[in-house]
């Protein structure tokens, strides 16, 4: 079996990184079409006005990534004559630009303004319908040509987004390691490379070492070495680890939770965190590892109880809905190195919730 890995071509992170945008874009072309999330357009205007070497044309867009929004963006970019596409904003604006750039075979630059997931470095665009339901995952032909994160901008976003990004990144090691043990495919057409698995391991270790302090720093909107290290883990290391290492139970359980209407107001990483915790009960994981992960989630502010994500642990029908969706034929939960069925997932969700009660009522 082939081993494969994919990466962004260039990654830039740091306080004031937006000041280097003109220089960075000049590596790729001379005329950039910029899709800017309408929620942050005013915040980005000073940085965009500094461009000298590259002509910028700017369009403010709503946070939606549908077939219609991608087609509209591609048409506007084509008419602008741009030779680079840049997306500024959260995941849906980024994915709109990613897909439109792919349609037009143009270089793509991603400038996230929040860090709620590990998607910025990937070749994945999630396409929704007009009602906000996921239609499909679209894998574009290549990863971004540039990912640029200005830490002084991201630290100003609500801390809940940063915590959710930690939840998404927490899954990376556990899922990549499952794929490694099971000889399962990653997301780019083969088995993971040693580099991908080590990126996933470093992601986990960095989170455990720095994320608790980083969350506190983010609440105070202070860019510190802990915040910087955690951000790199959630975006770059996790991005490489999930895409080139592989995904498994945690994200499959997320997919199941997403089928419950009560979970629709939750962030991706909040549901993924529950998936990570539940996955620790799909097999006989040593208790010290379970305790380490549960204590970490509590310390950074991630949910550890089903009630925290609007799921009643006594609602058998809801749990079965989650489990059946997670265990569909061909679903990524079957990348785990042992058989998994819906009954096991229901049992794991219940056991996880009971385990978390220990932290509510310590003996």
From TrEMBL:
Coiled coil: none
Record keywords: Metal-binding, NAD, Oxidoreductase, Zinc
Highest taxon above the source species: Bacteria
Pathway(s): Polyol metabolism; glycerol fermentation; glycerone phosphate from glycerol (oxidative route): step 1/2
GO cellular component: cytosol
Pfam families: Fe-ADH (PF00465)
Chain residues that bind glycerol: 118, 168, 251, 268
InterPro entries: ADH_Fe/GldA, ADH_Fe_CS, Glycerol_DH
Annotated GO MF terms: glycerol dehydrogenase (NAD+) activity; metal ion binding
Domain (Alcohol dehydrogenase iron-type/glycerol dehydrogenase GldA): residue spans on this chain: 8-151
Record family assignment: Belongs to the iron-containing alcohol dehydrogenase family.
Protein name: Glycerol dehydrogenase
Source organism per UniProt: Caballeronia sordidicola
